[in-house]
Design brief:
44% of the residues lie in helices and 21% in strands. It is of the alpha+beta class. The longest helix is centred in the middle third of the chain and has 14 residues.
């Protein structure tokens, strides 16, 4: 499992998750932890 803490990372979140998807296996999980970002990072993480 990869824990990914975020704050105001909306622009970087999707590229980061795509990069992780390339190196992680099918059984690996990514947990995005957002600290109430005002830029919508948490909402984007929910959609992805």
């Amino acid at each position: 499992m990869v824990c990914l803490p975020t704050y105001d990372e909306r622009e970087n979140l999707e590229p980061m998750l795509r990069a992780l998807d390339e190196v992680l296996g099918p059984d690996d999980r990514v947990l995005v932890i957002d600290d109430n970002s005002p830029d919508g990072t948490g909402e984007l993480a929910d959609r992805l």
